[in-house]
Design brief:
The chain has helices at about 10-35, 150-180, 185-200, 210, 215-225, 230-240, 240-255, 265-275, 280-305, 305-320, 325-345, and strands spanning about 50-55, 60, 65-70, 70-80, 85-90, 95-100, 105-115, 115-125, 130-135. A hairpin with a 4-residue loop joins strand 1 (about 50-55) and strand 2 (about 60). The protein folds into two domains: about 10-30 and about 50-140, Cupredoxins -  blue copper proteins (Immunoglobulin-like, Sandwich), CATH 2.60.40; about 150-345, A middle domain of Talin 1. The longest helix has 30 residues, at about 150-180. The two termini are about 20 Å apart. Helix 8 (about 265-275) packs antiparallel against helix 11. About 50% of the residues lie in helices and about 15% in strands. By secondary structure, it is α+β, with helices and mostly antiparallel strands. The strands form two sheets. Strands 3-9-8-5-6 form a five-stranded mixed sheet. A four-stranded mixed sheet has the order 2-1-4-7, with no helix packed on it. Keywords: Membrane, Transmembrane, Transmembrane helix. This is EfeO-type cupredoxin-like domain-containing protein. It holds the Pfam family Cupredoxin_1. InterPro entries: Cupredoxin, EfeM/EfeO_iron_uptake, EfeO_Cupredoxin.
Length: about 350
């Protein structure tokens, strides 16, 4: 599972993105049906839930670390403080399950279907240190499968990430415009390199056609040329371009804000980026950063399906990041990403293989 985030709740932007993504992926009716079924009776073949007692105070959980087998577990949460508190199970920034407004002395039951991995527990106040919930694989558990609803969290987080990179690109282009108007050739090259880096980080979300021709392809080429500007002749050619580039960047941002990038497309773009890592450079470092974001978002899902593959991908990505890059390291990473893509592709039944 992903490491616990520093905040107790998803940010407002992430909450909005998650809600929008859920509606886009499955429609309001499907999302409602899913939510309604979470408290339903176990289906045939599911094991009954075990009970785990846990006490919360304003500053801690007792015990602060719990280990349970994968599957359904019921937590009996008792508030031993003098104020109403909540208790949450977190997977990164995603709230898996929660109980709010547990009054002093009250015990509340929370039942969760947990997959193997490590989760965080909020223990009392949100500023208090978090507890650890370790879920170990069970030999009796059926082979895991994922469905479209499992993708909502990573897809929403990636949408927020793309918006952030689009904002970084717009800010760099605004500074680039100022540098060009001031006829500062060094500043033009620096700001163009920053804009190129932001573009490289969001590039996996773009399609092959967008990168080959059209305004997005023109933007990529112009940024590369501007980053290499070293003479007054280069500057004279570029000085009239910033406004046009800003228009293209705005069109790019609008397209990405409206786009739902599923794991299949994320990893397809990551494979393309990994295959394009020829030699170390600022651009390739930004491409690797874009790949890392995708791996971090999808690794918890892949771990549930194929833990060795998830570990190998993390190791090969680390090798590429430490550089200097080699064709062998990039090829190994591209192979890992291709395997991840196969694992996270939904079949005709709407499930992973």
């Amino acid at each position: 599972m992903t490491a616990a985030a520093s905040s107790g709740k998803p940010s407002p932007a992430l909450r909005l993105a998650m809600a929008g993504t859920a509606l886009i992926l499955c429609g309001g009716v499907a999302a409602f049906f899913y939510a309604a079924q979470r408290g339903a009776k176990p289906r045939p073949g599911q094991s009954s839930a075990q009970d785990v007692a846990i006490a919360i105070t304003e500053r801690t959980c007792e015990p602060a670390q719990i280990t349970v087998p994968a599957g359904k577990t019921s937590f009996i949460v008792t508030n031993r403080s003098q104020r109403a508190l909540e208790w949450e199970i977190l997977d990164g920034v995603i709230v898996v399950e929660e109980r709010e407004n547990i009054v002093p002395g009250q015990s509340r039951r929370l039942t969760a279907q947990l997959h193997p991995g490590e989760y965080a527990m909020t223990c009392g106040l949100l500023s208090a240190p978090r507890g650890r919930l370790i879920v170990k694989a069970s030999n009796d558990a059926a082979a895991p499968k994922l469905a479209l609803m499992d993708f909502i969290g990573p897809v929403a987080e990636y949408r927020v990430y793309l918006i952030g990179q689009s904002d970084a690109l717009a800010a760099a282009l605004e500074q680039l415009r100022g540098a060009a108007e001031a006829r500062d050739i060094d500043a033009v090259a620096q700001r163009a390199a920053e804009a190129s880096a932001a573009f490289a980080r969001l590039q996996p979300a773009l399609t092959d056609d967008e990168l080959k021709a059209g305004p997005i392809a023109d933007l990529k080429l112009a940024l590369a040329n501007a980053a290499g500007s070293r003479s007054e002749a280069d500057l004279a050619t570029f000085v009239k371009s910033p406004a046009s580039l800003q228009d293209k960047a705005k069109a790019l941002a609008d397209a990405l804000a409206a786009r739902t990038v599923l794991p299949d497309a994320m990893l397809g773009g990551a494979v393309r980026a990994a295959a394009g890592l020829v030699k170390p450079s600022e651009a390739s470092a930004s491409q690797v950063a874009g790949i890392r974001k995708i791996v971090e978002l999808l690794q918890p899902l892949v771990t549930r399906l194929d833990a060795p593959l998830a570990a190998k991908t993390a190791a090969d990505l680390g090798t590429v990041e430490r550089g200097p890059d080699s064709a062998g390291a990039s090829a190994a990473l591209a192979g890992d990403l291709t395997a991840m893509r196969a694992k996270l592709t939904l079949d005709a039944s709407g499930k992973t293989p």
